[in-house]
Amino acid sequence: MTIAVTLLGRTIPDTMERAVHVLQPGQTITVDETWHQVLAVVEHGDIEIQTAFDGRVQLGEGDSFCLPGFATWIVNRGAGRAVVATVRRLLDEGSRP
Fold first, then answer.
1. What digits encode the pLDDT tens for the residues 30-86?
2. Does residue 97 lie in a domain region?
3. Which of 6, 47, 4, 49 is nearest to 23 (CA)?
4. What distance in Å separates the CA atoms of residue 83 and residue 24, rounded to the nearest whole number?
5. What is the rounded distance in angstroms from the CA atom of residue 96 to the CA atom of residue 89?
6. What sign results for the dihedral spanned by CA atoms 70, 91, 84, 40?
7. The domain spanning residue 72 has which CATH number?
8. Which domain holds residue 75?
9. Rounded-to-integer distance, Cα 37 and Cα 65, Å
10. pTM
């Protein structure tokens, strides 16, 4: 039995921040520093993660991922919208990740 992973519809601690990214068909998100040190889950649809080194991986609903600190893009290659939810720890001033 597989249990689907989701970050939506759940309470998260005040020390965490959640974001929801909706990608229309063909839309691309350029990953920046706000994506570093996040846990991401594909909540709906299918995406492709591409790197500057021509790496590619296909992910679908329920798949989770973390991204490296180099040039990366998230692309919706499907016919419908894709939804990716992320959570990250909020850092206090002076604390390190």
1. 998 888 889 999 999 999 999 988 999 999 999 999 987 778 999 999 899 999 999
2. no
3. 47
4. 9
5. 11
6. positive
7. 2.60.120.10
8. 16-89
9. 10
10. 0.85
Q: Measured between alpha carbons, how far is 22 from 37 in angstroms, rounded to an integer?
A: 20
- C-alpha 90/C-alpha 97 separation (Å) is 9
Is residue 45 in a domain? Answer: yes
DSSP-derived letter for residue 91 is P
Q: Which residue has the tokens 């939804």?
A: 83
Question: Does a structural domain hold residue 10?
Answer: no
Domain total for the chain?
Answer: 1
Residue 5 lies in a domain: no
Q: Tokens 């080194």 appear where? A: 53
Three-state DSSP state, 59: strand
Structure tokens at 91: 């850092």
CA dist., res. 48 & res. 7, Å (int)? 19
